[in-house]
Amino acid sequence: MILHASCVAHCGRGLLILGPSGAGKSTLALAMMALGASLVADDRTLLHGEAGRIMADCPPTIRGRIEARGVGILKAQACGPVELALAVDLGQAEPERLPPLRRFDTSLGTLPLVLGAGRVHLASILLQYLDAGRADTELDDGE
Fold this sequence. Notes:
Layout lengths: L1 E2 L2 E5 L2 E6 L6 H10 L3 E4 L3 E6 L2 E5 L7 E4 L3 E4 L6 E8 L12 E5 L2 E7 L6 H11 L11
Parallel strand pairs: 3-9, 9-11
Antiparallel strand pairs: 1-5, 2-3, 2-4, 5-6, 6-9, 7-8, 10-11
Helix pairs in contact: 1-2
């Protein structure tokens, strides 16, 4: 399956970047790469199932390439395939301060989903999510 999406990896975990054309998928991928993530795919991401996992890779024709709007196509060290751990949708804004666990469903399985449209510092937030996960307990007043 090929999705109109970009994908980066951090700490061996993949992030699927979704959103409409012009939403900033490549820009977010570049920001995350500047903070240490690796490029898996830009603009088109191949998904396949492997032993119950959702794997992401890049079509060979665009491997190691990412579009920088207004600059051109840049070369990048490519990685992948990688197991997906998370998806972000740049076409939807998160209305809640502490949102419920959201899900992105594919025919290959389900991923946790972050709604990211308009979110400031999204690259660093998503890197931390990939690195350490999300605490799903309510905060005490003292925290």
